[in-house]
Design brief:
8 helices, about 240 residues, globular, about 10% strand, five-stranded mixed β-sheet, alpha+beta
Length: about 240
């Protein structure tokens, strides 16, 4: 659960708008599904954390000392009880699970692989596709939706793991939220209603107490974030 710093067990360095930034969003959490995944994992385990909001275009250099990529990237967390830093979301959620095994969410290597390859690869290919390539990219995205919808339907629901979420669900929730916003607003094609198990999952995960403190401030920042990524991809290609 988010904290004002009092009795916090972790600092979470995440994408946000620090004080003094954009007046409309300053002091708020922005659009990083990987940071949201980490904060939701802590929230599911009732572990207090404090957010350190970072401008993605001006990340502190010291974060690179604590990320396996060797350069400033987010999320990065600091275990305040052990004075230990961990970077990269898979490693972070595994560390949290091992330190706080109850309630169990499992770890990325033990949970369902349903939806693998959907985010960001297949999703981003669709966002970038134009002209004749768009139909092919859309078909591949639909194939991923069908696979994932079937996996949700085969469980007792609404989660892949049944009535309670697992680590895979905590990862998929923010990803599907981003996908639905970006494909709907940018391409005019949100996740179709026929994938009712996906929508049931999204409704369930967004209703959990861990969602709100970890989520972006609004849908607009998610749209803006993906429009920026599309522009950057096209400019670099």
């Amino acid at each position: 659960m988010a904290s004002n710093g009092e009795n916090a067990a972790f600092e979470v360095y995440c994408k946000g708008a620090p004080e003094g930034g954009n007046p409309s969003t300053k002091g708020t959490t922005l659009d990083c599904p990987f940071s949201q995944r980490v904060m939701m994992t802590l929230g599911e385990k009732n572990v207090k954390f404090v957010k350190q909001l970072c401008d993605e275009q001006d990340l502190p250099d010291f974060l690179g000392d604590h990320h396996p990529a060797g350069k400033p990237l987010i999320p990065v967390v600091k275990d305040l009880q052990k004075d230990r830093w961990i970077g990269e979301s898979d490693d972070i959620v595994t560390y949290i699970e091992e330190k706080y095994p109850d309630p169990s969410l499992g770890t990325p290597d033990t949970c369902s692989k349903a939806g693998e390859g959907l985010f960001p690869d297949t999703f981003m290919d669709f966002l970038l596709a134009e002209g004749d390539d768009e139909a092919s990219a859309k078909k591949k995205l639909e194939e991923k939706y069908e696979e994932l919808d079937k996996a949700f339907g085969e469980s007792e629901g609404p989660y892949l793991s049944g009535k309670q979420p697992c680590a895979a669900c905590i990862a998929l929730g923010p990803q599907l939220y981003h996908i639905n916003i970006a494909t709907g607003r940018i391409k005019g094609w949100p996740i179709p209603d026929k994938y009712s198990n996906i929508h049931r999952f999204l409704d369930a995960i967004k209703s959990r107490p861990s969602w709100g403190p970890a989520a972006p401030v609004n849908d607009d920042v998610v749209e803006d974030g993906w429009r920026t990524k599309i522009k950057q991809k096209k400019e670099s290609s």
